[in-house]
């Protein structure tokens, strides 16, 4: 169980911001921090990992105190034993994929874990390549595998998939879910993608200006909670076209493009790029075995 | 022409470069990381030899280390080190004089690396020292090479500071640049020309190596 109580004054683009967070994460949970950029999400992960010192507060993990301002306890990042996947991957350019993983080994730690992880994220063919020659998705898999070499109990993911295309995203979400279960991790993810959050997380914290605005299960937080006779999908508007008295809105849901009719009063508020929920009463669905 | 001054020059440049390499790395690392208020002071001190006439540096070193005053005589009596008109003195002067040429490239190399590289190493359980040695330094090889070669070449080209503190003692402190001056003074232009040609060639070749090797590095990284 992770208990966080963090106070920190941060310098952001909009001036100073005071971050005040209290959060309890249960062991084995998959938690997402959601919110605008500059809200303090990355700072929270940095304080948890010891890369940034809070001004006040405490951090305890499974009963051990990692940080306590009043008791002057502050474990160094290397003593905290966590896996951290950076937004820019932070792979070491001078080492091959395999050496990147081996570098993370603790003294006397058996090397079998490296092979195991390379297998899990399917990097066997690429293991002797340098990071510069890899694609974004491949780099991300290396970063994920490297973060797990020391077999941490906590995995922190700072917008790991933001730079990837949607097909690659889907695949990596699968890897993340797989390692989360396989290694029984407590995972904290930063993400802006509602679909991704729904797919991966048990619990969401929405953070705004350094405070927790709302928290709960992703279904309730994004208003998808009540089981009803409805289909409901989230997608992105890719085009709006006027057709006579109505508008035809093209929406990308996953990898499918769906055309939906909207009346002018609805279409008025939509523009290309908007995230939308598409719902339909399920009174006449067709069920077909595939 | 004798080979003595040339060999002495190369020996001085080599010793200076080795000492500066190990001295400049911790200093450059500290400068690239610190937020201390005295950082500008240290940076100014490191860069001083770039703007200061070498004779000024040599003059004060001569004063400081002269056995005729207290610090110099203390060194002489207690430690048996005489830094005036000796090879050790030349090395010390060269180390000070070439300091910016090693510190600047290494510092800018370290500063150019993304912060997340060292942070990734820390959260992977590595100490600062291991991170510097295994992650940071291997990724700034072009900067290290630039520092080494510039220091070496700059030490070869020293004149004023060497003359002030070392004088012109054959086989002990008479380096090539001073030998040239010496030969010209005695109107022996032939020998001066030989020394000069060799220094010219040496400087060109060392700089050529830097640009060739670093060019290859850049090509590899920009792919």
UniProtKB/TrEMBL annotation, chain A:
Keyword annotations of the record: ATP-binding, Cell membrane, Ion transport, Iron, Iron transport, Membrane, Nucleotide-binding, Transport
Pfam families assigned: ABC_tran, TOBE
InterPro entries: AAA+_ATPase, ABC_SmlMolc_Importer, ABC_transporter-like_ATP-bd, ABC_transporter-like_CS, ABC_transpr_FbpC, P-loop_NTPase, Transp-assoc_OB_typ1
ABC transporter domain segment(s): 1-234
Record keyword ATP-binding present: yes
Transmembrane segments: none
Matches recorded under Gene3D superfamilies: P-loop containing nucleotide triphosphate hydrolases
PROSITE patterns recorded: ABC_TRANSPORTER_1, ABC_TRANSPORTER_2
SMART domains, sorted: AAA
Gene Ontology molecular function: ABC-type ferric iron transporter activity; ATP binding; ATP hydrolysis activity
GO CC terms, sorted: membrane
Name under which the protein is recorded: ATP-binding cassette domain-containing protein
Organism: Sinomicrobium pectinilyticum
UniProtKB/TrEMBL annotation, chain B:
Entry GO terms, CC: plasma membrane
Membrane topology: Multi-pass membrane protein
Subcellular location: Cell membrane
Listed transmembrane segments: 12-32, 44-63, 83-103, 143-165, 194-213
Pfam families hit by this protein: BPD_transp_1 (PF00528)
ABC transmembrane type-1 domain mapped to chain residues: 6-210
Molecular function per GO: molybdate ion transmembrane transporter activity
Keyword terms of this UniProt record: Cell membrane, Membrane, Molybdenum, Transmembrane, Transmembrane helix, Transport
Xref: PANTHER family: MOLYBDENUM TRANSPORT SYSTEM PERMEASE, MOLYBDENUM TRANSPORT SYSTEM PERMEASE PROTEIN MODB
Family, per entry: Belongs to the binding-protein-dependent transport system permease family. CysTW subfamily.
Role summary: Part of the binding-protein-dependent transport system for molybdenum; probably responsible for the translocation of the substrate across the membrane.
Name of the molecule in the record: Molybdenum transport system permease
Organism: Sinomicrobium pectinilyticum
Organism classification: Bacteria, Pseudomonadati, Bacteroidota, Flavobacteriia, Flavobacteriales
């Amino acid at each position: 169980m992770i208990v966080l109580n963090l106070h920190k004054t941060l310098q952001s683009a909009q001036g100073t911001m005071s971050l005040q967070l209290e959060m309890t994460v249960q062991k084995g949970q998959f938690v997402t921090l959601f919110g605008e950029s500059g809200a303090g999400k990355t700072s929270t992960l940095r304080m948890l990992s010891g890369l940034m010192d809070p001004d006040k507060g405490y951090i305890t993990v499974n009963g051990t105190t990692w940080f306590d301002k009043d008791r002057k306890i502050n474990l160094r990042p290397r003593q905290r034993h966590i896996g951290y996947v950076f937004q820019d991957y932070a792979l070491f350019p001078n080492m091959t994929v395999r050496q990147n993983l081996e570098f993370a080994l603790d003294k006397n730690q058996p090397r079998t874990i490296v092979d195991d992880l390379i297998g899990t994220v399917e990097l066997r063919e690429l293991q002797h390549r340098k990071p510069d020659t890899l694609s974004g998705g491949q780099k991300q898999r290396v970063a994920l595998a490297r973060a797990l070499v020391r077999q941490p109990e906590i995995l922190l993911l700072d917008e790991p998939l933001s730079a990837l295309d949607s097909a690659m995203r889907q695949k990596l979400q699968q890897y993340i879910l797989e390692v989360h279960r396989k290694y029984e991790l407590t995972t904290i993810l930063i993400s802006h993608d509602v679909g991704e959050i729904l797919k991966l997380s048990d619990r969401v914290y929405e953070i705004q200006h350094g405070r927790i605005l709302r928290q709960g299960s992703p279904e309730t937080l994004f208003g998808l909670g009540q089981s009803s006779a409805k289909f409901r999908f989230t997608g992105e508007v890719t085009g709006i076209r006027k057709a006579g008295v109505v508008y035809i809105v093209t929406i990308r849901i996953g990898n499918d493009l769906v055309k939906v009719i909207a009346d002018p009063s609805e279409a008025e508020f939509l523009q290309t790029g908007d995230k939308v929920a598409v719902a339909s009463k399920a009174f006449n669905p067709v069920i077909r075995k595939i | 022409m004798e080979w003595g001054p040339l060999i002495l020059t190369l020996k001085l440049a080599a010793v200076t470069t080795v000492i500066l390499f190990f001295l400049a790395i911790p200093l450059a690392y500290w400068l690239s990381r610190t937020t201390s208020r005295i950082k500008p002071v240290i940076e100014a001190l490191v860069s001083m030899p770039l703007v200061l006439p070498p004779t000024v540096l040599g003059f004060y070193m001569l004063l400081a280390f002269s056995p005729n005053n207290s610090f110099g005589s203390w060194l002489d009596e207690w430690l048996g080190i005489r830094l005036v008109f000796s090879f050790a003195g030349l090395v010390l002067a060269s180390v000070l004089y070439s300091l910016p040429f090693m510190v600047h490239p290494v510092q800018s190399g370290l500063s150019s690396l993304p912060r997340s590289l060292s942070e990734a190493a820390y959260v992977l359980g590595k100490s600062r020292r291991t991170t510097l040695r295994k992650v940071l330094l291997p990724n700034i090889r072009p900067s290290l090479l630039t520092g080494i070669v510039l220091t070496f070449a700059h030490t070869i080209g020293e004149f004023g500071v060497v003359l002030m503190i070392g004088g012109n003692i054959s086989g002990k402190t008479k380096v090539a640049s001073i030998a040239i001056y010496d030969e010209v003074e005695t109107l022996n232009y032939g020998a001066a020309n030989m020394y000069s040609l060799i220094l010219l060639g040496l400087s060109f070749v060392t700089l050529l190596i830097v640009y060739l090797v670093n060019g290859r590095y850049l090509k590899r990284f920009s792919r």
